[in-house]
Amino acid sequence: MRLAIAAATLVAAAAFATEFLPEAGPLPPTTMQRLLVVDAARAGNRLVAVGDRGYIVTSDDNGATWKRAKVPASPLLTSVRFIDDKRLEMTPGLTR
After folding, report:
1. Residue 55's domain spans which residues?
2. pLDDT class for 58, splitting at 50, 70, 90?
3. Which end of the chain is least crowded, N or C, by CB within 10 Å?
4. Backbone phi, then psi, for 36, in 5-degree steps?
């Protein structure tokens, strides 16, 4: 019984992740409300936000719409800043 519950939980979590957080591309507003965003940076109209599980999301219209950047999985990203108009610096969280 416990195994069945664990399997069902994993399937539900995978379905949630696929439904609400695509690997890359546009994100619905409800998805942005659920993401754990830790920091954001602005350069002109471009916003870049980072957070849990290495998520990187971008907006080119002052946050009206968002896209998830296609990046390899990583741990928590805790900060982001623009070095110049085209380059960013991101800091991962500490891991044990």
Report:
1. 24-92
2. very high
3. C
4. -90, 95
